[in-house]
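Researcher: Please translate sequence to structure tokens.
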Amino acid sequence: MSSNVTIDSEGTVTGNTFDKYGSENPVVRRLMSRFHRDLDACYSLAAPTSILDIGCGEGVLTHEWAGRLGDGRIVGVDLDDPLLHAQWEQRKAPNLEYRVMKGERLDFADNEFDTSTAIEVLEHVTDPEMVLSEMARCAERWLIVSVPREPLWRITNMARGAYWGQLGNTPGHVNHWSSAAFTKLLSRYGSVVELRHPFPWIMSVVRIGG
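Model: Translation complete:
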């Protein structure tokens, strides 16, 4: 599945103008239904009381989670981009705040949140280990993360005739993990208590320091 992305002069993805959550394409809808189903299972397992959502994008999931948290606090952070700001204005809630910030330098206290999330983010950042370290620092209990599963992601792109010149790599994806490699990375920050594979992604719940 591809996305139309905005990439800044440093090669950082700053916006995603393809609404995969609201797509009318039947294949995309089927894939996203499975993705959302597994993400809901991960959310239920963690049962967060507050959330720091890294790379929140247009705020689709952030706004949805705000409704599920009740009075629990949720903060979505992403880079400064007019496309994102416009979407944030459409997705507000009393317990929801959006902040412009990089995942590598989070301006929050240690353990300020119960859970940190990064959904389809780490493949875009130049230093995923720094982002994960900051996420783990700011969260007391859980990490919920997902990334494209390689090489399935690239194979899927090439099978539908996309990005042949990039060997199936979606523009803006600078990191690539198999399930085993991603699990090994996450294990540096805690215990991987849940690992799911909604095609073609990897999704995990990590108990911080566990």
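Researcher: Any highlights?
Model: The domain at 5-208 is CATH 3.40.50.150 (Rossmann fold).
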